[in-house]
Design brief:
five-stranded parallel β-sheet, 7 strands, alpha/beta, two-stranded antiparallel sheet, 179 residues
Length: 179
Amino acid sequence: MGTIFVAGTYGVGKSTLCNKLSTALKIPDFSAGDLISAVNGETYGANKVVRDKDANQNILASQVKQLLKSTPSIILAGHFCIFDINGNVDILPSRVFYDLEIETILLLEASSSQIIKNLSMRDKKEYSESQILLLQKAEHEKAHEIATSINCNLYVHHMLFDETDITSCLSYIERGPKL
């Protein structure tokens, strides 16, 4: 087995969906940020500022490797791209995705207005539509690039923020990609 990597921009619903997938599939779920924080002590809250993305990706790879020693499969919520300290899109190093033993990527997308609303409510932080659109576009491009380069399944799901999200994603995982 391996890792089901649930990716998407901030505020797209990764944590909520991962929790539901975990319950339905009886596979533990983890947040990349939480795994990294447990080692380096940084907290990734509303500020989303990362001090050393390269070191963090090494921590993440090591943590996932340890988890996969004790359980055959995990669900991991994470990103292909983040915002840098100036609010610009920063693409994470590709090499880490080779180390995560990813078998499936679920890329979650949503309307920029819904993501902005979610982030405003959750983080009390405002993002511009152009920032979110740029981040979502970069996340989409990188997901396709990584899926191709590591030869894994990719499912892009547009979030509706209702029960169809979980049923659609479960259906994809359980039957695999369409041939």
